[in-house]
Specification:
Elements: E1 24-28, E2 30-34, H1 36-41, E3 61-69, H2 86-96, E4 101-105, H3 106-112, H4 121-129, E5 137-141, E6 160-165, E7 177-182, H5 191-202, E8 206-209, H6 213-221, E9 227-233, E10 260-268, E11 271-278
Parallel strand pairs: 3-8, 3-9, 4-5, 4-8, 5-6, 6-7
Antiparallel strand pairs: 1-2, 1-10, 9-11, 10-11
The chain binds NADP nicotinamide-adenine-dinucleotide phosphate.
Length: 281
């Protein structure tokens, strides 16, 4: 499993090294138990899509992975770590082994203080065996580029980073290799065009988005998410009086609501792992 600096709490629960992989029960469609790595191996993802884009250029096939309590909370004390279990942690990392790029909103990057995306040598070897780059590209969204170069991902010279931004600023003192996708001067960022550029310039065919809620809202609103992988944790966290809490999608609402179609359902320790296809109108 990827190591994280002692100062950086893991995004999801950690495991003891000699435990074998968690075996998920397959509830739908039914089948023999399987590990997270087996599950991602069987996803059968297209390397890119243009089928929903109405003639606009091809963009990466995009999965969103999120974890939520049963009552809809995506953070507890501001973090996602306390929500999931070990199976969720393993799935979170296994998904990174099949993606060409991992997309993260700046809010999540700052809060969760991301490390390099795949630092486990076995997982890096697995990616190479699958014909992928050893390291997925970290695709960061930021308007203001207020990103500390001390965030472990940005401080790692081995990390590959693409920053998608309407700003013409650059990150200074950043050890990671950083490229930029920018909007035309003075123009707002066109997310769909940025996604196409990820595909064309950086050969990203499968993009894994890891949130957070404000970025999710924009991606869903523009029909840029193809699948939602949602871990539903058997916890109720409630809402402290007077506090505004983040749901999975923040800053946009959909009327009529977006429709999802269940592709598969796994279970481990009462956590449910839902794989949904997002209907595009
Ligand atoms: N439960 C889960 O699975 C899960 C997953 C992820 C995150 N989280 C939690 O969610 C929280 C963070 O979420 P959040 O909604 O506050 O932040 P977020 O969605 O991660 O990031 C929002 C930021 O992304 C940038 N951004 C978004 N849309 C953009 C666009 N179109 N163009 C350019 N930049 C854009 C902006 O960055 P700038 O501010 O730099 O301009 C914006 O402030 C954290 O507490 C984290 O723990 C939970």
């Amino acid at each position: 499993m990827p190591k994280r600096p002692a100062t950086t709490p893991p995004k999801r629960p950690s495991v003891t090294p000699d435990q074998g992989p968690v075996l998920f029960k397959r509830l739908h469609p039914p089948g023999a138990p399987l590990s997270a790595l087996d599950f991602v191996e069987q996803l059968g993802l297209p390397r890119a899509t243009d089928e929903h884009s109405g003639g606009t250029p091809t963009r990466p096939y995009t999965l969103l992975n999120m974890v939520s309590t049963a009552d809809g909370r995506v953070t507890i004390k501001g973090r996602s770590g306390p929500i999931g279990n070990r199976a969720d942690y393993e799935l979170f990392h296994a998904l990174r082994t099949v993606a060409d790029g991992v997309m993260i909103g700046a809010g999540t990057l700052r809060t969760e203080r991301y490390n390099r995306i795949v630092d486990d040598p076995d997982e890096r070897a697995l990616r190479l065996a699958r014909g992928l780059q050893e390291e997925p590209c970290a695709c960061l969204l930021s308007r203001h580029l207020d990103l500390s170069p001390e965030i472990p991902l940005l401080a790692d010279p081995a990390a590959r980073v693409v920053i998608i931004t309407p700003s013409d600023a650059r990150l200074l003192d950043c050890a990671a290799r950083v490229d930029y996708i920018r909007s035309a001067p003075g123009q707002p960022l066109d997310l769909r065009a940025a996604m196409s550029e990820l595909h064309e310039r950086f050969a990203i065919g499968v993009l894994l988005c890891e949130g957070g809620p404000h970025l999710n809202a924009e991606l869903f609103a523009q029909g840029l998410i193809d699948e939602l992988l949602l871990t539903l944790s058997p916890k109720l966290a409630g809402t402290p009086p007077g506090e505004q809490l983040l749901l999975m999608i923040a800053g946009a609402s959909f009327d009529p609501p977006l429709e999802l179609e269940l592709i598969s359902l796994l279970e481990s320790e009462s956590h449910l792992f839902l794989r949904y296809r997002v209907a595009h109108s």
